[in-house]
Specification:
The protein is of the alpha+beta class. Helix content is about 40%, strand content about 30%.
Length: about 140
Amino acid sequence: MRLFVACFVFALNFITASAALHAQTRTDNPVYHANQLLDVLERDGAKAVSDTLGEALENKDAASAIQSILTPMEKRKAKFRAVALDRDYGGAVRQIIVYQYMLSEQFPFIYFRFVYKMTDQGWRMSHFSVDSENSQPFPSKYDIN
């Protein structure tokens, strides 16, 4: 019985967290939000996370383009993931780059870039991109200087 209750509570928390993330377009914690999105990619796949990103970016047309980019990475557990950069620009803009290592010949070193801008309702994601880089610490198009 205890196992059943524990499984039920886990399932309820999982469903609640997924629904909350899906509906969330503003956040108080952009790093947590970015990591939750990557968890959805690992767990539920490219379609689920691309729909969520389309809503967060308030650009539903972007969802199909994002889905095609993320499909090769879907439902694959990262061997390592960490926030490589979290830069705050005067409390108005935040750039977060999450580095992820996957055992994949096609995409071993992945960088997910999230840009959040402050609004009267909290942080809102305004940009998302994915890149791979083998020869440099960061993709060259990321302005990190």
